[in-house]
Design goal:
heterodimer, A: alpha+beta, Butyryl-CoA Dehydrogenase, subunit A, domain 3, 7-stranded mixed β-sheet, two-stranded antiparallel sheet, 11 helices, about 50% helix, B: alpha+beta, Butyryl-Coa Dehydrogenase, subunit A, domain 1, Butyryl-CoA Dehydrogenase, subunit A, domain 2, 12 helices, 8 strands
């Protein structure tokens, strides 16, 4: 049996919430979008220097806090609430967790301290043309070239891939799948931002033409390792999603209390009440699913894959539903560019599809559950 | 630098308790459930007496009334083991609903008079709250209790009373104030089901069965000593949180739904239906929901273990469970097609028509004990703080 509550988690949540309330208000999110930036440099530095957030899952031996998926989930939920524009998910949830679980001391020593102190951003490039994170679809190749490797092919939908200092590229080597680190100054790499729905999260294409790379986690069973990394990413994204959903609910409730029609607050009408109560139900369920998944992953429980896939499938729907209901409850004002509701809808739908079509995720859950 | 793990059950005394209980349940197991309703009641009562007489009844109850006074963690274990052993639970709603109220608000004399016989199964208690004109709007109830010396004289009608035919005692809400006083004029009264003027009329429900009854009170004389709490204070008593005992059973309930889903998956596999991606997708939906029902049970239990109280949204579990119950049975019918429509006496019926019966029976899930709509209102107002509907009377 897993206990559902730790006082330290409340403290962490309050700490991050307070920081982001000040550093990432709606107008800041807008400013970064307009400026086509994926972070505010000063805020990123403060996140590292004052709160140590980029190092949350980095082992203490490499300058991090040594926490696990549960604590990362709490941080991401807070970032999801405010639609923080920053390469945090890519750097920490994707690349950071991949390196932390790689068992590769050399790679860890090379990159994790930079992630922890905020000086290095990173990402993990898996998807290609179809956008799927199914490892069977990887065609990018890696060839040994003396002391290093050359990586060739095209990755798509790379989260923060345009700006990341380190690209961890999943590619096919002669001995099977592997992960290859391509650094910022490597030649023969062409990166481009993609025009995509969610303006708060940058996606990029990365074309590699024999780019020099370092192999990461060579001693690992790559399939097992990358499955774990995938599960960690699902749980992390689910956490971010449910934070966004919770904020959509709050915005809806706040508005329903003050907006009057027919001489009374619209929140006194049952039709609106039931929408809000149903959203709360989904937010609560999603939070439980995220918590369970992150604890299961942190403790290496046998049902961790199921729990992560379940959490992501549930939170995907919950967030998109909440974002749509938020617009509906706001009525006309919710349809305007100036209102934040559409930013949440964009984030929600993009997160729902980020790792491939939802039906594929659900089919995977069926397999894992033995159906 | 890792956070310490929060306390979980599983310490040695808990393991020893589990082993002892498991052994007891195996050695004294009452065997198969009789089909005849009368025999079944006697069988259930005999089992409850066995539990009581051996000190294995009332996990959360004080010892002086025959309970075990277990820690919350051990209450969870108790419910897990009892569910695992598939032994009958108490008949009626007394143990679950009336007893916590009596333990909290009853006089010493009332506790001694009522609790042990209820727990031992000697007396079956049934709830009399709803009335024909007071369903979701319970504060408008009209069954009156008029004071006459040391007695109340009760007249009126209750409906949707489950276990009424077997009941020895009704715990009721009755009107002692004016009709206009609504919830401020309601009293919690315990009425002997065998008293003169009490009439039980079984009510045939949409399943064709007799799960519920109407109960008529015609000038029934009830001693004032049967009143729990003060006159006109019954509404508060009935609405007070009933303690954590039900939460302790949440985990075994969640495991029960897990089992039902696995059974349906096995049925679908036997019938070759799992290759259909649409069928698989619907199973995935139920898998997600049954998983979340379990997580919510764990979270509620974890909250109580860590903080001593359930979270403010514990009512959410009920909304989840009732919708799940309805959907899984309807999905089973859809899977079976016309075969799903066969009643249990049809030789071709699948699994004695359990899914069809469940489809019909669970229509009540989102009505009884507060309709889904009222529960959503309550969540919206009490958890989210949305404004009260102006046309509705104040709470």
């Amino acid at each position: 049996m897993t206990a559902g509550y730790r006082a330290e988690h409340d403290e962490l949540r309050q700490l991050v919430r307070g920081f982001l309330r000040e550093k990432s208000p709606g107008h800041e999110v807008r400013r970064l979008i307009e400026a086509d930036r994926n972070r505010d440099d000063a805020v990123w530095a403060q996140m590292a220097d004052q709160l140590g957030l980029p190092g949350i899952v980095v082992p203490t031996a490499h300058g991090g806090a040594g926490y696990g998926p549960a604590e990362l989930g709490i941080v991401l939920a807070e970032m999801g609430r405010v639609l923080l524009v920053a390469p945090y998910f890519a750097t920490v949830a994707l690349a950071g967790q991949a390196l932390a679980t790689s068992g590769d001391e050399e790679a860890q020593e090379r990159w994790l301290p930079g992630i922890a102190d905020g000086s290095l951003t990173a990402t993990l490039a898996v998807a290609e043309g179809s956008g799927s994170w199914d490892l069977g679809e990887v065609t990018v190749s890696a060839e040994p070239a003396g002391g290093h490797w050359n990586v060739s092919g095209t990755k798509l939908f790379v989260v923060d891939g345009h700006s990341a200092d380190l690209l961890l590229v999943v590619a096919r080597a002669p001995d099977g799948l592997g992960v290859f680190g391509v650094e910022r100054d490597a030649p023969d790499v062409e990166r481009a931002k993609l025009d995509t729905l969610d303006m708060t999260r940058e996606l990029a294409s990365v074309i590699l033409r024999g780019a020099p790379a370092v192999r990461v986690g060579a001693g690992q069973d790559a399939m097992a390792w990358l499955s774990l990394v995938g599960d960690l990413a699902l749980a992390a994204l689910a956490a971010e999603q449910i934070g966004g959903a919770a904020r959509c609910l709050e915005l809806s409730v706040e508005y329903a209390k003050v907006r009057e029609q027919f001489g009374r607050p619209i929140g006194s009408f049952q039709a609106i009440k039931h929408k809000c109560a149903s959203m709360l139900l989904e937010v609560e369920c999603g939070q439980s699913a995220v918590y369970h998944a992150s604890v299961a992953l942190g403790e290496g429980q046998p049902d961790a894959s199921i729990a992560a896939t379940l959490a992501y499938a549930y939170c995907s729907r919950a967030f998109t539903h909440a974002a749509k209901e938020c617009i509906q409850i706001h009525g006309g004002i919710g349809y305007t560019w100036e209102h934040d509701a559409h930013l949440y809808l964009r984030r929600a739908k993009s997160s729902e599809l980020l790792f491939g079509p939802p039906a594929r995720q659900r089919a995977r859950l069926a397999e894992l559950a033995g159906i | 630098m890792t956070l310490p793990h929060a306390a979980t059950s599983g310490a040695d005394p808990d393991q020893a308790f589990r082993a002892g209980l498991r052994q007891f349940l195996a050695e004294h197991h009452p065997g198969r459930r009789p089909n005849d309703p009368g025999e079944r009641l006697a069988w259930t009562k005999a089992w409850l007496a066995t539990l009581f007489d051996n000190g294995y009844a009332g996990p959360g109850w004080p010892r002086e009334f025959g309970g075990m006074d277990l820690s919350f963690a051990q209450q969870v274990i108790y419910h897990e083991e009892v569910a695992r052993a598939r032994v009958p639970g108490p008949p009626g709603t007394g143990v679950g609903i009336a007893a916590p109220t009596i333990i909290r608000y009853g006089t010493r004399e009332q506790k001694q008079r009522w609790l042990a016989p209820m727990l031992r199964g000697d007396k079956v208690w049934a709830q009399g709250y709803s009335e024909p004109e007071a369903g979701s709007d319970l504060p408008s109830l009209r069954t009156t209790a008029r004071r006459d010396g040391a007695e109340y004289i009760v007249s009126g009608q209750k409906i949707w009373t489950s276990h009424a035919a077997d009941a020895d005692v009704f715990f009721t809400l009755v009107r002692t104030g004016t009709q206009e006083s609504r919830q401020r004029g309601i009293t919690y009264l315990v009425i002997d089901a065998h008293a003169p003027g009490v009439q039980v009329r079984p009510l045939r429900d949409l399943t064709g069965g007799h799960q519920f009854a109407e109960v008529f009170f015609d000038d029934v004389r009830v001693p004032v000593g049967n009143r729990i709490g003060e006159e006109n204070d019954g509404w508060r008593l009935a609405r007070t949180s009933l303690g954590h005992e039900r939460t302790a059973g949440a985990m075994s309930q969640a495991e029960m739904y897990r089992r039902v889903l696995t059974e349906l998956e096995e049925l679908a596999r036997e019938r070759g239906l799992l290759a259909d991606p649409l069928v698989r997708d619907q199973f995935v939906d139920l898998e997600i929901r049954v998983g979340i029902i379990r997580y919510k049970a764990q979270a509620a239990i974890g909250d109580i273990l860590a903080k001593g109280e359930a979270g403010p949204v514990s009512s959410i579990s009920r909304l989840l469970i009732t919708a799940f119950e309805q959907d899984i049975h309807e999905f089973a019918l859809d899977l079976l097609g016309p075969v799903g429509l066969l009643g249990k006496s049809a030789p071709q019926a699948v699994q004695r028509s359990r899914w069809l019966h469940g489809f019909l029976r669970t229509r009540a899930s989102t009505i009884g004990a507060g309709t889904r709509e009222i529960q959503l209102n309550t969540v919206a107002e009490q958890v989210l703080g949305l404004p009260h509907e102006p046309g509705m009377p104040a709470r």
